[in-house]
């Protein structure tokens, strides 16, 4: 609710109606105007692709934690960030989130700007869609790392080996 109090437009997606009701009640009890707040009930992987393609200044990913949900949330939400917009990812200790962080640390379109034990923040150093061909992703290393014959190590460990300098 900090963003709403600061006068910004804020969209929040929550999977359960009880969470939406709690947020509304919180605002009402504190006199927080809800005219710039959009609360959407649903799962992020289903809702995010349907939202208007408006450019965003900040994205917070704190949704589903199982693979591939953090990556899907990143693709559909962070792809709308403006150049130099900020992406905050919560629950960095979880494996699927760590895979996303390893990719972002290797991808030159993102710069890590803050790290805590719970969350990490990145600045987007590009604009437009996040979709790009594999020929532009040489930072991931040789394609063998993605095949079934690759050594049995965690994918995020392999991504870290190709970290940008």
Automatic annotation (TrEMBL):
The keyword Transmembrane helix does not apply. It comes from the Bacteria. Keywords: Methyltransferase, Transferase. InterPro entries: SAM-dependent_MTases_sf. One of its GO terms (biological process) is methylation. GO terms for molecular function: methyltransferase activity. This is Class I SAM-dependent methyltransferase.
